[in-house]
Amino acid sequence: MAIYREKDIFERRNAANDAKKALLERFKQRPAEDDPRVLARKAEREAILAARAEREAEKAVLKQAKLAREAAERAEAERIAAEQARIREAEEAERVAAELAVEAERKAKRDARYAARKARGGRLPPGFSGR
Predict the structure, then answer these.
(1) Where do the coiled-coil regions begin and end (predicted)?
(2) Could you tell me the pTM of the whole model?
(3) What is the rounded (10 degree) CA torsion for 34, 38, 40, 46?
């Protein structure tokens, strides 16, 4: 059975120092800014960024065109809806005018019957007794 031995402070300090030294060595081994590989990677990144900017500009143009097309479609739909509403209002006004004309004709006939009855005098229709 293995016995677990806890590290003392000196072992932990040495491990931390070794890690710092390894990190410093990695940093020192990093290529300089004028290294051809670094310059090639930088140029590649710049090309990618330029292509991305171009794609975003194209997307913005397409989006503006789409928004303009949708606005034109909405305006056309609103114009059609307004025209249909105007037609419905005209039809409703026409229907109301016709209904009023029919009602006025009925009233005129009723008034004519009433006037004719008054003109006949007090004569009652057959079957009615005068009280």
Answers:
(1) 50-110
(2) 0.46
(3) -100
